[in-house]
Amino acid sequence: MEKNNKKPILYHGRLPMNRREMLASGAIPALTWLTTPTSLLSTFAAAGVAQAQELCKTGAVDKFPAFINVNCSGGWWACGNWIPLTEGRELLPSYGRNGLGSANNLVGMIVKDGHFKNKPPFFSGSGFMAGVQSGLVPNLASLALAKTNFVGMPLQSQNDTNTNKLSPISLLQKAGVGGTGILPFFGQQDSITGVNQTPAFSNPLKAPLLVNNYNSIVNALGVADRLSALNHAQKTKMFKASQALSAVQSRNLASLTGGSLLDRLLNLANVDNTKLIENPSGLDLDPRVNTAFSAVWGLNANTQPGDRDLVNAATVYNIINGNAGAGGMQVGGCDYHGSALGPTIAKDNEIGTLVGRILQSLHVMSKPGFIAVTTDGSVGAPPSDIPGTDPTADRGDSSAIYMMYYDPTDSVQAPDWQVGHMKADPNAEAADDTFLVGGNPEIATAAVIANFFAAANKMNSWTSVPELNRTFDSLQLKKIVKFNAA
Question: What is the C-alpha separation between 58 and 53, in angstroms, rounded?
Answer without folding.
Answer: 9
